[in-house]
Write a structure and sequence with these properties.
- This protein has 197 residues and is an all-alpha fold.
- It has two domains: 3-46, no CATH class; 53-187, Cytochrome Bc1 Complex, Chain D, domain 2.
- The protein is built from seven helices and two strands, in the order αααααβααβ.
- The chain has helices spanning 3-7, 25-46, 52-75, 83-89, 93-111, 134-143, 159-172; strands spanning 127-128, 186-187.
- 51% of the residues lie in helices and 2% in strands.
- Bound molecules: heme C (HEC).
- Heme C is lined by residues 106-107, 109-111, 119-121, 123, 128-130, 137, 140-141, 145, 148-151, 153, 165, 184-185.
């Protein structure tokens, strides 16, 4: 009887039997090491034992990344559609529904469902930090204000959708959502829309 015979397990499946061999040491070592690693990893990153400086570092990097994007759009500006176009589309129901959809998906988390302002300023009154003309709003959305937490959207959103969001924002001018954030910045009277609204 060769030594392997002893290790044959009792059971058989369709005549196939198996040995009772232990896993090789190196494989077990990897298994145990990854279990230990996972505990440390989850504790550090998921359960927030990480020092605060880790979060701060992440935020800094995010701002730096966005600043690079902003610099890119400073050097290669996206030409906004004409003022006439942006204003004309602010009364076009198809464009508005596209703009509203994008706003709900991408902007509402910071500016509020009804653009009443949350983390970011309200976008319904006539006060603007970065200019209230529709072409200026278009530029703000493209380039963002990375240092203040407004991401640059020029790469993430196709230009015609940015235009639709800008027209949508223009259409919200003078609306009175609940709990508006107090106005910030200079007063700019909204440019008149085709129907004089
Ligand atoms: C992560 C949060 C965040 C998201 C998401 C966000 N914004 Fe902002 N936004 C801000 C902040 C913060 C400011 C204020 C910047 C400042 O203080 O200069 C701002 C400013 C603005 C301004 C300028 C307002 C002014 O007074 O001049 C516009 C316009 C704007 N955002 C539009 C948008 C649009 C459109 C979207 C979606 C495509 C969007 N934002 C998504 C945070 C955000």
């Amino acid at each position: 009887m060769d030594e392997n015979e002893n290790k044959l397990l009792e059971h058989a499946a369709d005549g196939i039997q198996e040995y009772d061999n232990p896993l090789p040491g190196w494989l077990l070592a990897i298994l145990y090491a990854s279990i230990v690693f996972s505990v440390v990893y989850v504790g550090f990153y998921a359960l927030a034992f990480a020092p605060d400086s880790y979060d701060a570092e992440l935020r800094q990097e995010e701002i730096a990344d966005r600043a690079v994007l902003q610099a890119y759009f400073n050097a290669n500006p996206l030409v906004p559609p004409s003022t006439e176009n942006l204003l004309a589309e602010a009364v076009d129901v198809d464009v508005l529904s596209k703009g509203a959809g994008r706003f709900a998906k991408t902007c509402a988390s910071c500016h509020g469902e009804a653009a009443q302002g949350l983390i970011g300023p309200n976008l319904v009154d006539n006060q603007w930090l970065h200019g209230g003309k529709v072409t200026q709003i278009f530029n703000t959305v493209v380039k963002g204000v990375p240092a203040k937490g407004m991401p640059p959207w020029g790469r993430a959103i196709p230009p015609e959708e940015i235009a639709a969001v800008v027209s949508y924002i223009r259409s919200l001018q003078g609306s009175h959502p609940d709990n508006p954030k107090p106005g910030e910045g200079e007063v700019v009277e909204p440019e008149p829309m085709p129907q004089g609204r």
